[in-house]
Specification:
Length: 462
């Protein structure tokens, strides 16, 4: 199964978001725990102060009648806003009547046997309470002083804390994710620039270099390393091009010598038929090899030269007339109809002989790949303000799968390889000439209805 690629920015954002989320939850838990124990300690202090006060009152009123002390105790309960308080004897019985019905109904924890102070959690009528229980000796009397306070206030504070935490999580998560995405996107922007530049570099423009930022980071090193690699490729390709140009050039001499010698030998009337056949074969093969070498030499020079060299007004109708003048006798010989139409005579900036060569390559192909009886139509027209030269034939056409490759060097579609002579360099040269004129060379073909080549020049440049 194909895995959908996830961009680095998105992955970093997910990481930022995830780390932030866990960090925030951890922070929330720690804060919650600390708030809980602070509130508990606060409650303890309030209750401890209340019991201290109760203790003082008991000490001060020692020796007074039970009635009076009960009154003092009631006053105390009133002064603490009916705060829950109770005084038990060591045997568990109430030392004084409860100051309020709430205190008498309260489920006070058992007096117990220990003599240390206790701070307990108690449920009364479904509500949680904190209770302090402190043993106290008053003369002969052993008492346990109780005070209680509801925990509800604390719970509301804790609840509000959670609520605040939970509502802030999505907002902060969104802010941190957007911030993370923006930062990573910004940090990785140079990668997009390097990718676009690297994509635009091909064998034809290896001298171009990737943009290098002065950030001193990994991306700068990456761009510099790629540039060093391009430098090595450029010089290696340059060597190969020079070698091809030199080899083609050097081979031309011996080849034309071989061809001349064979042609001279062929003219010898005393040569026996077998030798004549052999000489004729040599002449034919040498001619093919010469044409191949010419093509290779042209392309090798094209690779070495700058593309913006040719700039003179060229009359396209004259180009059509010359090239078609050469092709017409061949078309007649092969029983093909060659027609020309020049609705609008047009001039372009360029090089006459290169354009004639381009048209000749297209005509030569049309002649080669159109079986008799057939048609070849050459038209010169203006299409959307762009001078356009069209060569249409009624020949064997080109398969859709071959169309993207026919301008590649040495590419020949299957039927041509076996049936028609050629070397697969013609259209590569034609494409180079088109590029030289900033023109587009387009092809359209239906295998049953022949092929159409269109040379579309830039909008009128004269
Ligand atoms: P070649 O020397 O083989 O003609 P080209 O580069 O001129 O080399 O053409 C490349 C290939 O494109 C040819 O081999 C042929 O298969 C195909 N092709 C070119 N022009 C035509 C055409 N007019 N009709 C059909 N096929 C064509």
């Amino acid at each position: 199964m194909l895995k959908k690629p996830v961009s680095i920015s998105l992955r970093l954002t997910i990481w930022f978001g995830g780390i932030f989320f866990f960090g925030w939850v951890l922070f929330g838990l720690v804060m919650w725990q600390s708030l809980k124990s602070t509130l508990r300690a606060d409650r303890y202090q309030t209750l401890a102060r209340r019991v201290d006060r109760l203790q003082d009152l008991l000490a001060k009123t020692q020796g007074e009648s039970d009635e009076d002390r009960h009154q003092v105790f009631k006053d105390f309960a009133h002064a603490t806003g009916n705060g829950l308080a109770e005084i038990f004897s060591a045997d568990g019985s109430r030392a004084y009547p409860s100051p309020s019905p709430a205190a008498s109904a309260f489920p006070w924890p058992a007096v117990g046997s220990g003599d240390g102070e206790r701070f307990l959690h108690v449920l009364a009528a479904g509500q949680p309470y904190w209770v302090i229980a402190r043993p106290y000796s008053l003369g002969e009397q052993s008492l346990v002083l109780y005070a209680a306070a509801p925990e509800a206030g604390n719970l509301v504070i804790l609840q509000n804390f959670w609520r605040g935490l939970l509502t802030s999580v999505p907002v902060l998560l969104l802010i941190s994710s957007l911030g993370g995405y923006w930062m990573s996107h910004r940090a990785l922007k140079p990668v997009d620039r390097i990718t676009a530049a690297a994509r635009s570099i091909s064998i034809g423009n290896l001298s171009q270099r990737l943009p290098v930022s002065n950030s001193g980071d990994e991306l700068q090193r990456l761009a510099e390393t790629c540039n060093a690699m391009l430098q090595r490729l450029d010089s290696a390709v340059g060597q190969i091009k020079r070698f091809t140009a030199d080899a083609s050039h050097e081979l031309r001499g011996p080849l034309s010598f071989t061809r001349t010698v064979a042609e001279v030998a062929l003219r010898n009337p005393n040569a026996d038929p077998e030798s004549r056949r052999a000489f004729a074969d040599i002449v034919e093969e040498a001619a093919k090899a010469t044409s191949l070498l010419e093509g290779m030499l042209t392309l090798a020079r094209a690779d070495a030269d700058s593309l913006d060299t040719v700039q003179e007004p060229v009359d396209l109708s004259a180009v059509v007339q010359e090239a078609c003048g050469l092709a017409r006798p061949l078309a007649d010989e092969r029983n093909l109809t060659l027609s020309t139409s020049m609705a609008s005579v047009s001039q372009v900036l360029g090089d006459f002989s290169s354009l004639r060569r381009l048209l000749w390559i297209l005509l030569d192909n049309a002649l080669k790949y159109t079986p008799a009886p057939g048609r070849i139509d050459v038209a010169l027209s203006m299409v959307s303000g762009r001078p356009t030269l069209t060569v249409r034939d009624s020949g064997i056409g080109i398969a859709q799968s071959d169309l993207p490759h026919i301008f590649d060097r040495f590419y020949r579609a299957d039927p041509s390889r076996s049936q028609v002579e050629g070397n697969g360099l013609g259209l590569a040269i034609a494409k180079w000439i088109a590029d030289l004129h900033h023109a587009e060379l387009l092809v359209d073909s239906d295998q049953r209805q022949g092929a159409t080549f269109r040379l579309v020049f830039p909008p009128r440049n004269l």
